[in-house]
């Protein structure tokens, strides 16, 4: 009879045992006014990290509003990973083809004052070493206790060791400690002194499963923590991306982000909406995730304040070098050749060539940096410092008396000698924003939940803007994700240019 053989495929997990990866939404809060009490503000969805990939937060699961600005979504506000409060999204609105979220900012609750310790009403008592009630062990008859005829079991102060009830009935101490007759028939659960473990009671059926405990309604459905009762009862299915008959119909397979309390009124929300890009607009990162994570601060702790000043000066020197290398004096700003006299050519007739044919290099124009923003982060555990510097550079005046205005961005990391090394640099001006946008740094945030932070920048073009995520790989920083186009729009639909 032929023998049937099959290859062992290895251990496989069932679908209901696979770990469900929850979506992690990253957005940027823009506001005007005092932090915690803004006069107006909005949430700009950046990305939703799900399935190991970045999805555009302004488009992911739009029905018609995307998941990142769905009503009752709760965001945790952060600065370099440190909590700054929460933002409850009351609803999203489509403005010129881009979705924005509007809601209420709740500041971080102040820490509770430490409880005052009250003195005890019972004064302490000093116990001396010759206390007759002090428990002690009694040894064998070595001559010192020759007069002691009291049996050990009759001493009320002697500590005893409780033996197992099945160890035999001849020992009176074991019988007395177990509470039985010494025959060994008493079970261990009847021992009042035996420590016990409190088991968890199942909330569902009485039969325990192999994994222990009860599973959620749908283990494959991604969702975030909720605080509203209505969202907890939402139905789900095993298939993902089910068809929706209408735009307003709830999708049972739609993942849920962190849930907050719905807004009570619509009128205060309308008054608090931010439109356009005011000159004094402020930005902060916002994260919505169902997975409970410990706060992780990414700010770099400098050993001394002197090192901050020294490192910033070194990075500013790198920024000036990048500006001059970018072309501080374009040909359009140089006077025409007809108006510039040509220096006479010197020919070598006698003497060394180095003394007669030497030409002096042109002196570079002065560069002054303004609107400087210097920050340092530790993007990973023991990862060292990562330096981010942005500024506006005024170059000149040049030979024609023209002063150029440029925007420079530097990402650097110190080497073993403490000298910053450039990992990324960008230089542009207003005439080339369509090719190279102005980079405005937002913050460092863990975008994918791996306890390593990435850098978020706002990219301002001449007619629109984007938000981008940059990740450091070895000796360089690369763009990992960029959103779609976001318009410069003010109230009434008028366009607002970048500053």
From TrEMBL:
Source superkingdom: Bacteria
Signal sequence residues: none
Stretches with biased composition (Low complexity): 117-127, 167-176, 333-355
Region (Disordered): 106-278, 333-367
Biased composition (Basic and acidic residues): 131-144, 155-166, 191-202
Name of the protein in its database record: Uncharacterized protein
UniProt source species: Acidisarcina polymorpha
């Amino acid at each position: 009879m032929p023998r049937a053989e099959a290859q062992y495929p290895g251990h496989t997990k069932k679908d209901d045992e696979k770990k469900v990866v929850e979506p992690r939404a990253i957005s940027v809060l823009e506001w005007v006014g005092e932090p915690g009490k803004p006069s107006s503000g909005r949430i700009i969805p950046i990305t939703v990290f799900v399935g190991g990939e970045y999805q555009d937060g302004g488009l992911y699961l739009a029905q018609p509003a995307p998941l990142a600005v769905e009503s009752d979504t709760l965001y945790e506000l952060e600065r370099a990973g440190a909590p700054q409060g929460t933002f409850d999204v009351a609803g999203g609105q489509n403005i010129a083809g881009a979705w924005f979220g509007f809601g209420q900012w709740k500041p971080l609750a102040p820490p509770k004052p430490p409880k005052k310790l009250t003195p005890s009403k019972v004064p302490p008592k000093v116990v001396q070493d010759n206390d007759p009630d002090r428990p002690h062990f009694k040894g064998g008859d070595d001559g010192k206790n020759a007069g002691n005829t009291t049996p050990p079991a009759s001493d009320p102060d002697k500590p005893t060791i409780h033996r197992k009830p099945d160890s035999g009935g001849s020992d009176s101490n074991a019988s007395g400690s177990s509470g039985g007759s010494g025959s060994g028939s008493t079970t261990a659960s009847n021992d009042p002194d035996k420590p016990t473990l409190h088991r968890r009671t199942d909330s569902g059926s009485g039969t325990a499963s192999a994994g222990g405990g009860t599973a959620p309604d749908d283990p494959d459905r991604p969702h975030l923590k909720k605080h509203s009762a209505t969202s907890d009862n939402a139905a789900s299915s095993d298939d993902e991306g089910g068809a929706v008959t209408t735009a307003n119909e709830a999708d049972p397979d739609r993942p849920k982000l962190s849930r907050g309390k719905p807004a009570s009124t619509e009128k205060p929300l309308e008054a608090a909406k931010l439109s356009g890009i005011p000159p004094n607009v402020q930005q902060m990162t916002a994260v919505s995730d169902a997975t409970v994570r410990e706060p992780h601060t990414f700010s770099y702790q400098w050993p001394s304040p002197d090192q901050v000043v020294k490192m910033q000066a070194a990075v500013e020197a790198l920024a000036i070098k990048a500006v001059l290398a970018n072309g501080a004096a374009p040909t359009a700003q140089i006077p025409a050749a007809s108006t510039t006299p040509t220096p006479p050519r010197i020919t070598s007739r006698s003497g060394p060539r180095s003394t007669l044919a030497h030409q002096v290099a042109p002196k570079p124009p002065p560069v002054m940096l303004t609107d400087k923003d210097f920050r340092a982060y530790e993007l990973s555990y023991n990862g060292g410092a990562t330096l981010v510097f942005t500024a506006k550079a005024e170059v000149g005046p040049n030979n024609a008396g023209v002063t150029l205005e440029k925007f420079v961005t530097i990402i650097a990391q110190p080497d073993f000698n403490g000298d910053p090394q450039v990992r990324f640099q960008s230089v542009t001006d207003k005439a080339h924003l369509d090719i190279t946008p102005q980079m405005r740094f937002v913050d460092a945030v863990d975008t994918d939940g791996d306890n390593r932070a990435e850098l978020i920048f706002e990219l301002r073009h001449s007619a629109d803007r984007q938000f981008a995520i940059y990740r450091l790989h070895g000796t360089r920083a690369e763009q990992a994700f960029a959103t779609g186009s976001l318009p410069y729009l003010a109230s009434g639909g008028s366009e607002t240019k970048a500053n």
